[in-house]
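Continuing the batch. This is chain 6 of the set; chains 1 through 5 are on the previous pages. Same settings as before, nothing changed between runs. Recording input and output for traceability.
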Amino acid sequence: MSQREWIEKDFYKELGVSSGASQDEIKKAYRKLARDLHPDANPGDTKAEERFKSVSEAHAVLSDPAKRKEYDETRKLFAGGGYPRGGGFTPGGGGGFSQDFNIGDIFGGASAGDGGLGDLLGGLFNRGGTRTTSRPRRGADVETETTLGFREAAQGVTVPLRMTSPSPCTTCHGSGAKPGTSPRVCPHCNGTGVISRNQGAFGFSEPCDDCRGTGSIIDDPCVDCHGSGIQNRTRTITVRIPPGVSDGQRIRLAGQGEAGLRGAPSGDLFVSVHVSQDKVFGRNGDDLTLVLPVSYSELVLGTTVSVPTLEGRVGVKVPPGTADGRILRVRGRGVPKRGGGAGDLLVTVKVAVPQKLDDNAAEALRRYAEAEKASGFDPRAGWAGA
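Output for chain 6:
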């Protein structure tokens, strides 16, 4: 895609957000559109597939603060005819630049023909200016999601992810040329991908028409990818989720995103992890939590109870006279930490009150209550409401 096409595209409109949208709003809009338009959800729908590509391209620019800033500044600079469809700048009138306007003032004193404007656009389109060799654009980053069980997230797991996305062509290995041939350096731009021109008092640069800004020409394109070096492929990626991942965390897999054009580096894959709740365990950072039901007699007399852990079970001692709601700590039986070791298991004791008692148990409890009263024990002694 040429610089001009990038400038004329409205990436905010593609995502359905305003130009002042926050990064979080951009992220949410992209995720919704990506789910709705994903090729797996729309098999055979070419319109949805093209829309998915456009949305991914818009997100790749707007989700990167540096690229977004350059994109916004460049669009603002060329708004109102500063970069007309005919190419070059329009001196005076028509909302363009006047003849008294010095482009070099914007770019630190450099003239437009001396890399100033080219450097600005080069940063946005991954080019180093008009005097360096053009590099094909890096592939866009891709986002996907996966849901893990609570214990899988705590202990770590390897999961397969099935994805349909642009990937390097397996026939030409991303070069775009038919196997056995190679692209040749474009003679028109000498491999830079950019042509410099002068128009009146101004100099400007445009992508080379012969090689479309790539710096190379393919005489015999690959029949499978038609010279792009990219194919839409459904692939399965095995992702290792490290122990201790938390709900909402993103995992980055470098180079597993959308393929770059003609062998350029691929983007990255970001996997958002969702963790389902567990019937037994809760989590507080690296610590596991659970509630242990106990009887009143166990709290009073003390006991040892076997409780579950991630690895199996462990005995937890409940000291005599333990109060209801007390938290007992079992060290090293929590969530594994990245630097080694593990958090703790926090066991909250909770007295379980029987709903019904038989006659013998009820009579025994009444005798206990009388003995307790005779001993002078008052559970509300010192209570503010007494």
